[in-house]
Amino acid sequence: xxxxxxxxxxxxxxxxxxxxxxxxxxxxxxxxxxxxxxxxxxxxxxxxxxxxxxxxxxxxxxxxxxxxxxxxxxxxxxxxxxxxxxxxxxxxxxxxxxxxxxxxxxxx
Length: 108
Known about the structure:
By secondary structure, the protein is mostly helical. It has helices spanning 6-68, 86-89.
């Protein structure tokens, strides 16, 4: 016949109570983690929407800047290099006989 001692029954009851407390603590931790996860997912959704809006605004700003930017590729025309008339090619003298071309660069 098996005789169960009072000590072994108490030990089993203590182990069961301890295990139940640990399970309750773990369940509470899981619930807290689920709540934090839900909050993080909501925040992620908000952040993604803000990012999408910022990207749209950036694209719109880039498009409007591209439309509004003046085109400068043909704004400054390069003068054509024509030969000087024969009268200007030779140095001119003033009434005192001085050469004007030596004082002023007429080809520039």
